[in-house]
Amino acid sequence: MATYFNNQLRSCDVVLGTLQAFSKDICSKCIGLSGAQTKVIKGLKKLRMDLDKSSTPEDGKKEIMAHIELCEKIANAIEVEEESECQKTAGRCKIGKGCFALGALELMKEITETDLKTEEKEVSKMANLICVVCDAEEPVPVVH
Fold it and tell me: What are the tens digits of pLDDT across the range 16-38?
């Protein structure tokens, strides 16, 4: 269970570093940065609640909680302009079609939302094949 939380925090570290860099440069007045910051903060709050409810051992919880608190501190410290607007709509963003800040959130999804369903199906197919070949009447192992 601790692996889940650690992977979530790894993605958060990547996104926070990215958003910090954007806040100092190209996205400093963009509403996309503000939205991304808000989503990260809300995600960290949810992660904190999930950790509280989890069966993770107490010593592991303390370590993970310290990392969550550090990430929350970093997220709240990202400098976002009070008066922000979409720089692309305003004609000031010249990076192309996408939005850097919102793209960082997509990166977070890529890191945290693995395609486990596909992996489970593949393992099940292989396990069924093994059972069919050896005629064993054992249940298919569950992938965790």
Answer: 998 998 888 778 888 888 888 99
Distance CA 28, CA 82 (A): 10
Query: 85 forms bridges with which residues in the sheet?
Result: 30
Report the alpha-carbon distance of residue 90 to residue 74 in Å, rounded.
28
The CB density around residue 78, as the number of other CB atoms within 10 Å, is 18
* Residue type for position 120: E
pTM recorded for the entire structure? 0.70
Residue 135: half-sphere exposure toward Cβ, Cα within 13 Å: 0
Given the structure tokens 């503000």, which residue do they identify? 34
CA dist., res. 37 & res. 77, Å (int): 10
For the beta carbon of residue 79, count every other beta carbon within 10 angstroms: 10
